[in-house]
Amino acid sequence: MEKNNSRLSKASLLKHGSMLSLLTLISRILGLLREMTKARLLGTKAISDAFTVAFMLPNLFRRLFAEGSIAVAFIPTFKEYLLENDSKKTSEFVACIFTFLSFLVTLAVMAGILFSPYLINFFNMELVDETVLLTRIMFPFLAFISIAALFQGILNSHHIFTPSGLAPILLNIVTIACAYGLKDFVGGGGERGAARAMAYGILLGGFLEAAIQLPFVLKNKHRLFFTGLKRAFSNPGTKKVLRLIGPTIIGMAAYQMNDLVSTALAGHAGVGVQSSLQYSLRLQELMLGVFAVSLGTVLLPNLAEYAKFSRWEEFNSHLVSAMDIIALITIPITFFSISQGEILIRLLYESEAFNDESVLLTLAAFTYHMPGLFFIALNRILAPAFYAQSNSKSPTLAGIISFVVNIFLAASLVFYFSGKDNAEALSGGGIALALSIASAVNTVFLIAFLKKNPSIDVRRIIMSTVFFMLKLLLLSGIAVIPLYFISPYLLGLFSGSLRFVKYGIPLAINAVIFAALGIGLLYASHDKRLASLIRSVKRTGSRE
């Protein structure tokens, strides 16, 4: 019976993860289209840097108040209320958290709008006034997206993932529509009009992210109402969430400060570096978000339940399976992306505004961002393992150590490359490399901190991940070699065609060759994980 339950649980994890991955894939593709829209309309000019910094600020606080703290602290606590099956206590807890979060983000939005001129001073912006205006337009996005994250936490705890998967799709569609539809009617048109139109799109999209999830929250009989602040803060569930949030916010603040300080350093490296780093990160997040975020989202409620009832064998199995899947996907993608970086960037971003200089800047960042993909993805899987145990201190400490490493390396590399030829590109690449190294450091410390719980089989986790990682590094390295000989021929063959044909067909052919070689090598090596994954997909498909 226990084996059957384990199989069903893994099949359920795959089923929910597959659906959420599909929705996340659509969202990330639309997010990429949003970034392509920005590249086409703004390029890597000063106005693009202004929009990048203006959007980064509310986004940073969103990660603190939403995904980074409320979500990871709320879900394990809320899951305990659901397991106790006391509807009155659960309803009271939800109302108190809703009140607390609304109060907190309202204060944050007001402070952000008021103090935005002082915040912008840290970034050495060329268009200071425009950056301040764009920041003030987008800062209320923080409130909408934080409430949306709370709704997502409620629904995910009920193993309902589709509405929260649809929410960011709306954000991207609305932003793209506003960029093209409003650019000639706001800000006097032109590049400033396009930047402001996108800012209004972000604001409207954030509202819709919360709105689309609300009916599903109400359908699950969770009434949302405001209660007194004293009552909200004194609720036992709120107190537990706050105890978890305290160290989590410190850890997430350290992690998000990576982005903040790196962007500030990029502002001193030259015009366009800030934007190029974001264009590069968007490509990385396309790959990261589809798998790591989806698996982490589905994994957290399950791990919380296993930890609650001390079902540590299932806890360990789920964690190892998730880490193996991450390695199986991210390591080959890293090799392929680095080998095809320029083709990919030209295919997606190249335009009149996004010229050869823009390509060079973005390629330098992308080449050094991609080696960090595997470690960032692992961190997204390992962090829920701690939050499921109501342990937010360990990820916090790992985040602080990672932050110190990243900022030291980024500042050193920017200083080292300043004054050299192609200083902007080299500095952008240095900042990206610092983030990749810091992500690897974060992974090492997270795995080390897992040893604090003797019920978690850390040796099994390390042995499984390291050996599989080394195997994938070898096989991916072999599979990517032919692409270096084939790519120049393919690019020459389609050189006179339109951009999407000129770069798209060679990229697609290279992808098919690389995937066929990689899967063939895995099959030839009798890889158990590949066989297990195929069997799981077949079992899940037969149940549909």
Word description of this protein:
With 544 residues, the chain is an all-alpha fold. It has one domain. The protein has helices spanning 2-42, 46-65, 67-84, 87-120, 128-138, 141-157, 162-182, 190-219, 229-234, 236-269, 273-308, 312-339, 341-349, 356-369, 373-387, 393-417, 423-449, 458-493, 499-502, 504-524, 528-543. α2 packs parallel to α3 (67-84), α2 runs antiparallel to α4 (87-120) and α16 (393-417) runs antiparallel to α17. 51% of the residues are buried. Residues 1-10 and 540-544 have low confidence and may be disordered.
Write the layout of secondary structure elements.
Layout: H1 2-42, H2 46-65, H3 67-84, H4 87-120, H5 128-138, H6 141-157, H7 162-182, H8 190-219, H9 229-234, H10 236-269, H11 273-308, H12 312-339, H13 341-349, H14 356-369, H15 373-387, H16 393-417, H17 423-449, H18 458-493, H19 499-502, H20 504-524, H21 528-543
Helix pairs in contact: 1-7, 1-11, 1-21, 2-3, 2-4, 2-5, 2-6, 2-8, 2-10, 2-11, 3-4, 3-6, 3-10, 3-11, 4-5, 4-6, 5-8, 6-8, 7-8, 10-16, 10-17, 11-12, 11-14, 11-15, 11-17, 12-15, 12-18, 13-14, 14-17, 15-17, 16-17, 18-20
List low-pLDDT spans: 1-10, 540-544
Element-by-element helix/strand order: HHHHHHHHHHHHHHHHHHHHH
Structural class: mainly alpha
Fraction of residues in β-strands: under 5%
Q: How many domains comprise the coordinates?
A: 1
Q: What does the main sheet amount to? A: none
**How much helical structure, as a percent, in the residues?**
over 70%
Query: N-to-C terminal Cα separation, in Å?
Result: 22 Å
Radius of gyration: 23 Å
**Mean of residue pLDDT values:** 83
What general outline do the C-alpha atoms trace?
A: globular
Count of DSSP H/I helices: 21
Count every beta strand, where a strand is a DSSP E run of 2 or more residues: 0
